[in-house]
Amino acid sequence: MSRKPENVFITSIHAHLPSIKEFYRMKNNNEYNGGIADVWYSGKTDLWVEYKFLVLPKRSTTMIDLTAGNNPMLSALQQEWLRGRHAEGRSVGVIVGCKEGGVWYPGTSWDKPLSTAAFKSQLQLRKDLANMIFSLCHPI
After folding, report:
1. Which stretch of DSSP H or E encloses residue 51?
2. Protein fold of 5-137
3. Which pTM was predicted?
4. What are the backbone dihedrals phi and psi of residue 11, each rounded to the nearest 5 degrees, phi first?
5. Tell me, what's the pLDDT at 87?
6. Cα 80 to Cα 66: distance, rounded to the nearest angstrom
7. How many helices (H) and strands (E) in the chain?
């Protein structure tokens, strides 16, 4: 059975996370309660992350919009869940991965489309995304 690119991407980020007892992560999959972010990270603080994966458009002017169209990357339930937790003051965000790396959308910044050129300018390596996740859960 082949694995979805999104799950392969998540695994590739998790490979760079430290294995210490003060840092916990849980992949969420609940067929009865849709919209919950893909992964919950817990350290000194919590972080909820929804992951998506895409093939980058060839044209630099093509807009990457996570919420538009008939089949948006972020479903209505996911958008509602993320907005609700953000409004409660929780730390949430979306990481959109691609072959080259990934882009972090903190809070509800995923609501603003990016051109492919702007997306590429914000790309981070998987190791850097893992470091960011850990640092958000273990602020200095």
Report:
1. strand 46-53
2. Trna Endonuclease; Chain: A, domain 1 (3.40.1350)
3. 0.94
4. -60, -40
5. 97
6. 13
7. 4, 7
pLDDT for the residue numbered 85: 97
Residues in the chain, overall count: 140
List Cα–Cα distances, 48 to 7, 25, 94, in angstroms: 16, 10, 8
For 84-112, letters b (16+ CB in 10 Å) and e give ebbeeeebbbbbbbbeebbbbbeebebee
Q: Cβ(40)–Cβ(48) under 8 Å? A: yes
User: If we measure between CA atoms, which residue out of 114, 131, 137, 130 comes closest to residue 48?
Assistant: 137
Q: Are 47 and 137 in contact (CB under 8 A)?
A: yes
Give 104's DSSP letter: E
Q: Which two tokens stand for residue 46?
A: 């919590």
Query: Where exactly are the structural domains of the chain?
Result: 5-137
Confidence of residue 62 (pLDDT cuts 50, 70, 90): very high
**Residue 14: closest CA among 92, 127, 93:** 127
